[in-house]
């Protein structure tokens, strides 16, 4: 029997000072827009943006987006990272 072909929604995992805040479900469009927006930010706001193609534990293809904000940009915290998990099916489903 074929696997479920309905694409899952993307998920955003914000990490603040190595603590996971509540995960948020997004559409693939919202997740990719967030990553593109981070790429356009100056280096004093975002110092790293990476996207990796990989699979989850069950072998389902997905893309991981990593956005690291410059230390000191956010007040009261030392480190802020956004991790986007986007199922590849959600990116290629037409």
Description of the molecule:
There is one protein chain. The chain has 94 residues and is an alpha+beta fold. It contains 2 helices and 6 strands, in the order βββαβββα. Strands 1, 2, 3, 4, 5 and 6 form a 6-stranded antiparallel beta sheet that branches. The two termini are 23 Å apart. 14% of the residues are buried. The mean pLDDT is 88.
In whole angstroms, the N-to-C terminal distance is: 23 Å
The chain-level structural class is: alpha+beta
Which whole number gives the mean pLDDT? 88
Q: Low-confidence spans: pLDDT under 50, at least 5 residues?
A: none
How much of the residues is beta strand, in percent? 35-45%
For this entry, what is the oligomeric state of its chains? single chain
H and E string: EEEHEEEH
Biggest β-sheet strands, sense, barrel? 6 strands, antiparallel
The number of strands is 6
């Amino acid at each position: 029997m074929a696997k479920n072909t309905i694409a899952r929604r993307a998920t955003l995992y914000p990490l603040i000072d190595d603590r996971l805040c509540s995960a948020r479900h997004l559409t693939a469009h919202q997740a990719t827009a967030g990553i593109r927006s981070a790429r356009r930010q100056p280096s004093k706001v975002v110092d790293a943006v990476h996207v990796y193609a990989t699979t989850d534990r069950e072998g389902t293809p997905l893309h991981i987006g990593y956005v690291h904000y410059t230390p000191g940009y956010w007040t009261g915290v030392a480190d802020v990272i956004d991790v986007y998990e986007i199922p590849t099916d959600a990116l290629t489903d037409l």
